[in-house]
Every structure is written in structure tokens, then in C-alpha cells.
Amino acid sequence: MPERHHKTRNQTYPEPERRDRDRDRDRDRDRDRDYRRGRGNEPYREDRSTVYQYEDRTRSYREADQELSECHESTNEEALYNLKYIPTSRGLCQVGQFFVNMLIVICAGVPYSNKSRYQDLASLGGLYYYYYGGAQAFSTQEAAKVNELDDLFYKLKLPPYIFSMACGGALMVYALIMLALGVFRVPYHYPIVLLPEAVLDALISLGYIPAVAFYFIKIQETYNNPTCKQREEMYTSKGLKGFECNLSGTDIAGGFFGILGVFVFMLGALLAVKAFRDVRRMKQQREAEDNHL
Predict the structure, then answer these.
(1) What is the tens place of the pLDDT at every residue in 25-76?
(2) CA angle centred on 231, ends 229 and 236, rounded to 5°
(3) CB count in 10 Å sphere of residue 68
(4) What is the pLDDT of residues 116-170, one digit of tens each?
(5) Phi, psi of 240 (to 5 degrees)
(6) What is the DSSP letter of 117?
(7) Which residues contact 283 (CB under 8 A, 6 or more apart)?
(8) Distance CA 235, CA 136 (A)
(9) Global model pTM greater than 0.70
(10) Cα 226 to Cα 116, 141, 188, distances in angstroms
(11) Which ranges constitute the DSSP H helices of 10-82?
(12) Helix (H) or strand (E) holding 81
């Protein structure tokens, strides 16, 4: 058999060829080493980038949560008072309640402060007698009688006016207290106070009806009193007007404002019930948001 010649690693090559082979082998070794080094460092770089991205995301989430909590805390910060309550429907209604009762007090205070005593100008003599007196002036005895009737009539008419001023003043104070509670946010912190307010407003509204009826009944009794009739006759005999036993303009205005109070306080009762529902719903939503956060 022919001999087979095999190349072995110990086979000798010519010098140039061996240098080329060693150079190729070294180049391949360096390439493999660089490749292995690159593959070895690659997971490390990936891990570091992943850590950085995770930290960035965590920081961004933390900052977002912090901003949200700060915003929530700022919205939850409640001022001691809130003047913006006054222009609301309940605030304006309570202001209306105050002014309605103030007008009732004014209408009752005008006749209360007017004693309407006869001034005996004729007794002054001279120019006053001829200009203001003459045939229309009362004599001394008549002037004393008229003054006595004026005093009696003034005492007779006081009770309904005192009653009107007392009730009107008390309701003015009540309206101011309810307005102050709204400004200081008491119904928001304690919504239960809105229910007594609604009940009181409804009772006051209904109470105006008999109060106005009592007011006119007592005034009419005063005008139907014989003292008033006799006083009217004496003034009419001298041609003096303004002393008739009829309802005056202030009496009618007081009754009108009393009827207006029926509607104003009934509206206040309805608004209080509505406010109770709104505040309770808002607090439930706020609690749900707090629990969610």
C-alpha cells in the first residue's frame, strides 16, 4: 500500500509560512479573547441599565405620589372661615331673612316712637294763633281732653308693635347666627346641625302666619276701640286729618313683610335639607378618595 503522509503539529514549515501561520493564530486568539470579554461584560451593562431605569421609574413614581399627596393635603386644608359662603343660595337666603325682619322692626318702630300728641299752638297766642289756630284750634279744655285721648290711644296700640319688634329682633339675631355658622364652616364639619336649622326655619315660616294674623287683629281692635273713635271725632271736628282709625301705611308694610317672611324661611328650610344631602355626599366622596390614596 502506498504510504500516506499526514501533517502533524510537529511538522516543520518554512520560515515565512510559519510566521504567517503564527500571526493568524495570534489574531484569531485576540479576536476570541475580545469577543469573550465583550460577551462577559454585556450582561453587566444590561443589568446596570436595568437598575438605572428601575431607579428612574421608582423616583418618578415617588415624586408623582408626593405631588399627589401634597395636592390632596392642600385641598384638604380647611380655612377657619369662608366668606364665599355669603353669595351662595343659603347665604343670600339668610341675608334676606335678616333684612325682612329688620324691615318688620322698622315698620313697628315708627308708630311705637310716634306718640302723636296734640300741640296746643293756639295757646301760644299772636301769630301762631292766627296762622295755626283760629277756628281750628282747640280750647284749653279740649286740648287737655285730646291729649288724654292721645295718651290712652298710644298705650292701646303698643302691644302689637312691641310684639312685632321683639319677634323681628329675635329672628334677626337667629338669621345672623345661622349666617355666622355657615361662614365658619360649622355645617361642613357637623352636617347634623343643618337638620335642626331646617326644622326651625320651617316652624318659623309657619309661625309667621298666625303672627301676622294676630298683628292685624290686635291693630284692628285698637282702631275699633271707643277711645280711638272719640279721638278721631275731635280731630275731625277741627278739620285736622291724619288721625283716622284706619290701618296706616306702616301697618300694611309690616304685614306685607311678615307674609314675605313665610316664603323666605320656608326657602331656607328647603335649602338646609339640600345642603345636608350635598355635604354628606361630598364627605363620603372625600373619605373614599382618602381610603383610595
Answers:
(1) 777 676 666 656 655 544 444 444 444 454 555 555 454 444 434 444 334 4
(2) 95
(3) 11
(4) 676 655 444 444 444 444 445 677 788 888 889 989 999 999 999 999 999 999 9
(5) -90, 135
(6) P
(7) 191
(8) 9
(9) no
(10) 17, 20, 57
(11) 15-76
(12) none
